[in-house]
Design goal:
The structure is a single chain. The protein is of the alpha/beta class. It has a domain of about 70 residues: Nucleotidyltransferase, domain 5, CATH 3.30.420. About 30% of the residues lie in helices and about 20% in strands. The chain has a 5-stranded mixed sheet, covered by helices on one side. A hairpin with a 2-residue loop joins strand 2 and strand 3.
Length: about 140
């Protein structure tokens, strides 16, 4: 008994791709489930609402330490001009004189982000509360 071959010219085989696709989807699900995502905290740049226009409101008794950074990244702490790398030392000295003082970072809108991050990180590392205020040019 002879076997008949329809395709005597060559071997043409088909590869079933279904198992490979199954493996790819299983690996994809595995990597999605086991992936860890970093929870990075950013700098809060929301400004507080303006104070009410009530004349009868008593002024706050808490003193404030103001750190101003101009558009050329020159730093001024309570009217005293100094290098931005010495701001944290000056703030600590002023906090010894004025305990419970609020720290206000006032930055010109053209000031570099590097300076903002350096000052904010330094203040946050010392556990001091601070607020950021962006000063817009009205020129």
């Amino acid at each position: 008994m002879r076997r008949s071959r329809k395709n005597q010219g060559g071997d043409e085989g088909e590869v079933d791709m279904t198992p490979m696709l199954d493996i790819v989807f299983i690996m994809l699900i595995f990597f999605i489930v086991t992936a860890t995502f970093l929870d990075e905290t950013g700098i809060d740049l929301t400004q507080p609402p303006p104070p009410p226009d009530d004349i009868n409101t008593p002024p706050s008794n808490n003193p404030a330490i103001t750190v101003y950074v101009d558009n050329r990244d020159n730093c001024v702490v309570d009217g005293r001009s100094l290098g931005c790398d010495r701001v944290l030392l000056e703030v600590e000295k002023l906090l010894a004189e004025k305990p419970n003082a609020a720290i206000i970072l006032r930055l010109d809108e053209q000031a570099s982000h590097k300076t903002l991050v350096m000052l904010k990180d330094g203040i946050d590392q010392k556990g001091l509360p601070s607020k950021i205020e962006i000063v817009r040019n009205t020129g």
